[in-house]
Amino acid sequence: MKKVIYILLSAGTVVSCSHKGSLVGKPGKKGELIPKEKAKSFVAERPYGMVAIPGGSFVMGMADKDFTNTPEKAPLKTVTVSSFFMDETEVTNAQYRVFVNYVRDSIARTLLAEAAGDASSGGDTGNGIADYAYLAKKVGDNESAYQKYLDSKGGRDGYSNDSRRLDWSVPLRWNTSDYPDVKYAEIIESMYLPPNERKDGVRAIDTRKLKYAFQWEDIKGKIVGGKKVNEYVKKNSISVYPDTLVWKKDFDYAYNEPLYDGYFWNNAYKNYPVVGVTWDQASAYCDFRTKIKRDYNQSLKKKKQAPMAFRLPTEAEWEYAAKGGHENATYPWGTPYLIDDRGCYLANFKPKRGDYIEDKKKGTYTYTAPVKSFHKNDFGLYDMAGNVSEWTESPYNNATYNFSSTLNPSISNKDYMDTRKSVRGGSWKDVGFTLMTSYRNWENKDSARSYIGFRTVQSIPEGAAKFKRKQTK
After folding, report:
1. How many CA within 13 A on the CB side of residue 94?
2. Taking the model in full, what pTM does it have?
């Protein structure tokens, strides 16, 4: 018995010695609980095209004269908002087209991958529809253990997204003369309007098929039959193409056909703010921007943390940013006047009845204007007044200001079911007082207008020591 005990003790000594100086399987070093992460400050990386808005407190609400004397005006209250990044301009047509093209291409690639099935081209492109098979079907002998596990799941139990990764390295062919085979032609042509719906026989993408599917997390749940039901992961599918008919629907007896025909796709308008998007479409764009940044971070050899989500600003964040750091800013430029000392208008709006043009000498900006056409405010934000009004995350209701918190006040649509969303900033078709930083307006979340656009924000972690000033593409 003593020999057995001695042997066990000896074995224990050998195991102990074999791990001398190693942290494998141990929670710390030298018996101390010491994190492995280096003790250095976290630096928040500023996203491309955004500016950092430092946190602070301000008096929120219409402190200036309320020309409309409406009960929905914001009651005065002091609130505090945390730091965040904000787009320096409204989202432009060019930026939103990236989103639309991504949705178009991902749908086409999915249809091609489904049709390709288990076919394989052996890794060479140009051999037909097999080039577009799912990556899991093309790896062959190089398939990893994880990929084999995904194949065994067969798309069950929520693993379908991982097992059906698209091969984006193979270019799509939209020119009919480049179609590799008949099956490819059949699938790509299904993305276009059927011949009997085409105008003058022109092939055009069927925008009704351009839908973006995404998920969002509901951490609060909902009340059903008097009981709280938690459904943490919600799914949604949104048509993403802007409603170009808004240029006709918003104005009776006006000739706006040129804008209907080309405002979104013509390169002459690429740097103009996108319009004709609903609140849901703006939210889908935010999710897309988060996705592409997250996917990029995961593609790096030295993987980065998942980014903070891009989202629409709350009313409090929007108003605080619009004031540009000025405590009593009637307008974003900090003065109570709509013109500067040279008599030039400071924003794109309707100066007076029937007159939509600010610059009489140049005769420009009858409708929207290119972003950055007017001076930025002291936070570095352009067009926080005029050009297009902007969607916010917050619902529009008399009571929301009264029961929302004074610390980062937010009543999101997920908490407070109201189809009316707050719209801020005034637009190219509005008169001067609507440009006030505290002025509130609203629109139904499922409505699209020729004078409403949006910009996105991203929260900055409270633990960030400083902002990284250099923009990275």
Report:
1. 9
2. 0.85
